[in-house]
Amino acid sequence: MIWRSFLLSHGCSSSRIPNRPFPSLRVLQSRAHSASAVRTSKPNVAAVLNSKPSGDGLAITVTGSVRTIRNQKHHSFLELGDGSTTQTLQALLEPAQADGLGTGTTIEITGVWRPSPVGKAQQNELKAESIRVLGKTDAERYPIQKKYHSAEYLRTLPHLRLRTPLNALLARMRSECDFAFANFFRDRHFIRLQPPLITSSDCEGAGEVFTVSSNQSISATGESPENPQSDNVPFFRDPKFLTVSSQLHLEAFVNEHPKVWTFSPTFRAERSDTPRHVSEFWMLEAEMQTESLHEVMELVEDMIRSLTLHLQGLGCIEELIRADRGSGHTNTIEPALRAHFLEQRWQGLLRSSWPRITYEDAIHRLQDAINTKQANFQYHPSWDTGLQLEHERHLAETVGHGSPLFVTDYPSKIKPFYMLPSTTNMTGERIEHKTVSCFDLLLPDMCEVVGGSLREHRTQNLTQAMRDNGLNVAPESTISHQGTSAKPSPSLQRGSLDWYVDLRRYGSVPHGGFGLGFDRLLGYLAGISNIKDVVPWPRYYGRCDC
Q1: Average of pLDDT values for 135-148?
Q2: Are 40 and 62 a contacting pair, CB within 8 Å?
Q3: Is 161 in contact with 152 (CB distance < 8 Å)?
Q4: Which residue has the higher pLDDT, 491 or 228?
Q5: Residue 217: what pLDDT?
Q6: Of the given ranges (36-50, 260-274, 323-337, 500-514), which has the lowest mean pLDDT?
Q7: What stretch of H or E contains 440?
Q8: If phi over 0 gives left and psi between -120 and 50 gives alpha, with beta otherwise, what is residue 57?
Q9: Where, by residue number, does the polypeptide cross the bilayer (predicted)?
Q10: Would 241 disulfide with which of 191, 209, 335, 394, CB 3.0-4.6 Å?
């Protein structure tokens, strides 16, 4: 009635206002329940396997794809899977019902879910009453058979390997990770953001970026960009790139929102073909108002531990062990050893505290390992060269002892320009072996998975660091003459990162953050050493299939 009176008072014709009242909350809940019941009336394989039939059994209809089928004289035994679990459902068919069915065919089975005869491996089975073929497959030519397939072979079939039990499990784990991350950050009052994928800058400053262009601007002939009608004018007037990190754009929100995060794809044009690199992958990144690097590290530690507990509660270790059969990833490892291997990894992530050492300490430990003949490295560890993969592995083993290891305070010369210095004298002048307030998180075998730092929030210090790194920044005198009401200059004149300096020019706060390579972490949890076997659609140097 209140809304009716409001609409009439604002000139709305009474004939256009419905007389029936708005549905009550109970009615809406009832409708939602009914709609939900309709959508979920057909159980998946996991739900059927978790149900316990009694008496004459339970009448059900279930859909899935044929994993294998064994035809005998009087019966056929079919294994059905649908990705909801790595286990298969056994169905008992009459020979006529099995006619034309083969591996890869998608079917709908209606029948009775009942206890199996005594002595059978599976406690229950589905006695089929009717079968409907939803998607027929030529079983003889189907590339994914129930046998050993090497990871290299499956990599040639990225669109079909998604149907294997392991890849189906990885897809579910990805979904659960997204859910767990969202809950973790929401509980801590972080705001989730959607930063752009097309950017005007290279955040890391390494130059390994993909340039964005339209079809018309690929073969530019140098015509003046003042003529926007020309097909040869770059779409954005000056070069733009696919993002290598969302950090800079997240920082733009920190003044208004003290805690922000995102989970999005990133791109690196590295011409490397190693088990640890792909050109497109997912990053979880967070920024927060803080003056403490330890606070950022504690957030990372809590987040990964919380995620591990969530996945452990879902029984993912047991499913990973089952999924190994025929996956091609770890087929050579005995199930008992495989289970121990995964449990050790997960237990390391769940330890109450993770060790932390400085970069300087790390270099001393590596050099001592050489001097005492405990290790022999291809690359000699030194202050200026950074940590190589072999160094990170040694540190993770000898210091981490199975748990993650934080290495902090790297030399500024080997880190990006935006990091806050961690060592200066009383007057703020540079000193020898200057370091920045940053960290890398190393996992055993996988090595670096997270990188984070405090950000330089002081304008003059940031612009000087940018100039030291060869980045284009407009002089302060230019900015002061423009005033706050001046129109922004084109990025070619101001420099592609000048907008980032504006975040300091017009007031900033001490803050820091981190980026997590999600696919590496998922590979670590799943016991998969090659990231190309973790990413559903791997893109890397020389390959971008599908």
Answers
A1: 87
A2: no
A3: no
A4: 228
A5: 53
A6: 323-337
A7: strand 438-443
A8: left
A9: none
A10: 209
Phi, psi for 48 (deg, rounded to 5): -65, -45
Q: How far is CA 389 from CA 10, 60, 347, 411, in A?
A: 70, 53, 23, 17
Residue 489 has pLDDT above 50, yes or no: no
pLDDT at 110 > cutoff 70: yes
Side chain identity at residue 51, one-letter code:
S
Give the H/E segment covering residue 109: strand 106-115
Antiparallel, parallel or unpaired: β 259-267 and 191-192: parallel
60 neighbors 17 (Cβ within 8 angstroms): no
| Pairwise CA distance, residues 327 & 169, whole Å | 11
Task: Characterise 207 by phi-psi region: left (phi > 0), alpha (psi -120 to 50), beta (else).
Answer: left
pLDDT average, residue stretch 22-26: 43
| CA–CA dist 482, 486 (Å, integer) | 5
| Residue 141, φ and ψ in degrees, nearest 5 | -100, -5
Buried b (16+ CB within 10 A) or exposed e, 463-483: bebbeeeebebbeeeebeeee
Average of per-residue pLDDT across 168-196: 97
Whether residue 407 contacts residue 395, with contact meaning beta carbons closer than 8 Å, is answered with yes
CA nearest to 303, candidates 184, 430, 451: 184
Q: What is the DSSP-derived secondary structure letter of residue 335? A: H
Q: Average of pLDDT values for 251-260?
A: 96
* Concatenated DSSP letters of 393-436: HHHIIIIITTS-EEEE--BGGGS-TTBPBS---TT----TT-BB
Query: Could you give the CA distance from residue 437 to residue 293 in angstroms, rounded to a whole number?
Result: 7
What's at 69, amino acid-wise? I
**Res 32: pLDDT:** 47
Q: How far, in Å, CA of 266 to CA of 263, rounded?
A: 10
Amino acid in position 238: D
Quick one: how far is CA 435 from the chain centroid?
30
Residue 231 has pLDDT above 60, yes or no: no
